[in-house]
């Protein structure tokens, strides 16, 4: 999910009206806002509390997304609108509710853990996957290459003259005559964590 949100104001078919055709609530929130908040911070089956329920936007979106909800609203007119609105909502199919997690959601694995576990040894040579550079693994989980010392990311970036570098996909190690990305070792550790 992006970090910048462009949300419409609540108009058109989404805007709830009372029996006179007037706005049912002066500050009705757009469903797209609650959708982002709930998908980003809750899971199916969670309970959502909205102490200022209004016309039930939170409840309607929670129901669609397979969340449970508790709504508190003191104004009877708003409660009636909310009940009617929520009764019309249909929950999405459970397969549609699954959320794909990105790489950033995966457990973090420090490079030093590969050394601690003996997957790579101090003094072992790493090779850039583009074949241009070499660096040696140090006992503290850092690298040294061409007199540059630092993390797998820092050394890769400095050798390439780049502002940044993903060391996990930049460096490889030799096994059975082949260069294997060190990211394979990280994935192995992650699979053991699950």
Which shape, going by the Cα principal axes?
elongated
Helix content: 25-40%
Beginning-to-end CA distance, first to last residue: 24 Å
* Annotation field: number of helices: 8
Mean pLDDT: 89
- What is the level-2 CATH architecture name of the largest domain? 3-Layer(aba) Sandwich
The CATH superfamily title of the largest domain: Vaccinia Virus protein VP39
**Spatial arrangement of strands, main beta sheet:** 6-5-4-3-7-8
Counted up, domains total 2
- Beta-strand content estimate: 15-25%
Q: Overview of this structure, please?
A:
With 194 residues, the chain is of the alpha+beta class. The chain has 2 domains: 12-100, Vaccinia Virus protein VP39 (Rossmann fold, 3-Layer(aba) Sandwich), CATH 3.40.50.150; 105-193. It is 34% helix and 16% strand. The protein has helices at 31-41, 57-64, 76-87, 94-97, 111-116, 152-160, 167-170, 183-193, and strands spanning 47-50, 68-71, 125-128, 134-137, 143-145, 148-150, 171-175, 178-181. It has a 6-stranded antiparallel beta sheet. A two-stranded parallel sheet has the order 1-2. Helix 1 crosses helix 2. The longest helix has 12 residues, at 76-87. The radius of gyration is 26 Å and the shape is elongated. The two termini are 24 Å apart.
Q: How are the SSEs ordered, and which strands pair?
A:
Elements: H1 31-41, E1 47-50, H2 57-64, E2 68-71, H3 76-87, H4 94-97, H5 111-116, E3 125-128, E4 134-137, E5 143-145, E6 148-150, H6 152-160, H7 167-170, E7 171-175, E8 178-181, H8 183-193
Parallel strand pairs: 1-2
Antiparallel strand pairs: 3-4, 3-7, 4-5, 5-6, 7-8
Helix pairs in contact: 1-2
């Amino acid at each position: 999910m992006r970090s910048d949100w462009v949300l419409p104001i609540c108009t058109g078919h989404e805007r709830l009206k009372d029996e006179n055709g007037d706005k049912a609530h002066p500050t009705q929130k757009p469903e797209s806002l609650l959708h982002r908040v709930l998908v980003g911070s809750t899971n199916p089956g969670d309970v959502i509390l909205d102490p200022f329920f209004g016309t039930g936007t939170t409840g309607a979106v929670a129901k669609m997304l397979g969340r449970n909800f508790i709504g508190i609203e003191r104004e009877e007119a708003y409660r009636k609108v909310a009940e009617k609105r929520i009764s019309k909502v249909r929950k999405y199919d459970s397969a549609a509710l699954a959320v794909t997690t990105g790489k950033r959601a995966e457990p973090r694995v420090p490079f030093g853990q590969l050394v601690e576990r003996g997957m790579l040894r101090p003094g072992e040579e790493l090779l850039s996957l583009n074949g241009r550079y070499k660096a040696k693994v140090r006992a503290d989980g850092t690298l040294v290459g061409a007199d540059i010392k630092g993390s797998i990311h820092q050394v890769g970036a400095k050798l390439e003259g780049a502002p940044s570098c993903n060391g996990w996909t930049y460096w490889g190690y030799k096994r059975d005559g082949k260069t294997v990305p060190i990211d394979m070792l990280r994935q192995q550790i992650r699979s053991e964590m699950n």
